[in-house]
What we know:
The chain has 2 helices and 29 strands. It has 360 residues and is an all-beta fold.
Amino acid sequence: MDPQTEPRFIQHHPSFSKIVGRDARYQLLCESQFPLFHEACIFDPRDNSVFVTSNQLHNDAGHDSADTDNKHVKLTCIRDTVGGEAVVQEISFPGSDHAMLNGGVNFGHGTILLCAQGSKNPSDISGIISLGIPPPGYGAPPRVVVDSFHGIPFNSVNDVVVSPTDGSIWFTDPSYGHGQGIRRAPQLPNQVYRYDPHTKTIRAVADGFVRPNGLCFSPDLRTLYVTDTGAIHGSPDVPIDLSGPSHIYAFDVVHVASDDSDSESSSKEPFLANKRLFAYAPGRFPDGIKCDTAGNVYAGCGDGVEVWNKAGVQIGTMAIPGGVANFCFGRQGVIYACNETRLWKIFLEADTVKGALLGI
C-alpha cells in the first residue's frame, strides 16, 4: 500500500496503549470507486453487518431531480464474514432516492433509525425514520417517527442516538441541507432535540451551535457530548473556515420533576446543563462520536478517529488519510471506520475496548 494512504496509530498519552494493545492493526474491509462509506455506520451484532450511507452522489443522466439538486444517497449493508471477506448489498426502500440519508443508530431488535435529510419537496420522506433490517426488512417502507417540530419542518436532521433508559430519541438538526441545495431555507435554529416516542412529545434541548453534528451519551448516561462542525458551511461556494468550530461540547444530563411532587412516582424530564468545551479537535471537523465503556470519547475527524479520555485529554489518534466522518464499534475491540471510498476495520485491544452503545 502507498505509504501516503497507510493508516497508523499515533499515541499522545501513555494510556492510549491500553486501547491499541500489542496487536493493533488495520484491515481494508471493502473499497469502491464511489464514496459509499460516509455516514451512519450502524453495527448489527446478529450477523456482523454494518449499515452505511454514502456521501451525496450525482444522479445518472436522465434521472434529474431539482428537488435533490440532481443528487442521491445510497444505503449499503456490509456483512463482515468469518472468512474476512465483505459481502456488500445495496438497500433501497420506497422513497429512498429522495430521503438523502445521513446518520443512524440501532433501535431495538431488527430495526434501525436513520436521519432522512429530505429534499426541497415537502412530500418527500424526511426526519427521523425507522427501518426494519434483515431478516426481514429489505424493500419494506420506512416508518416516519418524527419529521417536524410542532409542524415546523426540520432543517436537515443529521445524527441520532437513543437513550437506553427510556427509549427517547435525541438528534441534531443543522442547516447543512440548504447549503447543499437539497432543502429549502431553514425555519429553525441549529439545535439538538429530544423526542419521546411514548408520549409523542418533542423538545429542543440545546442551542447555540453553528452546525451541531454528532452526539452520544457517556456510559453512565450523565453526560451528553455534541460535536460542532461549523467550520464547514455546507455550500460548495463557501470555503472551509479553519478558524471556525471544530469542537466537542459536554452537557450534564439532569432530571427535573414534571410536577410539584418530589416522589419517586413523579415523572421527570431530562435537561442539559453546564455546557462546556470538552475538546477542540486538532484534525478538525469532529463528526460522528462514540464512547467506550471506560468513558473514553472517540470522534471521526479530518485526520481519522481521535480519542480523548473522559477528562478531555487527547490520548491518541487512529490516523487515516482522507479522514473519517463516522464509525462504529463492533465485537472484541473492533472499530469500523467510514473513509469515503474505503471501509476500514480497526483491531484494538479485544479485552478492554468495548463500545458503550451496545456494550460489546
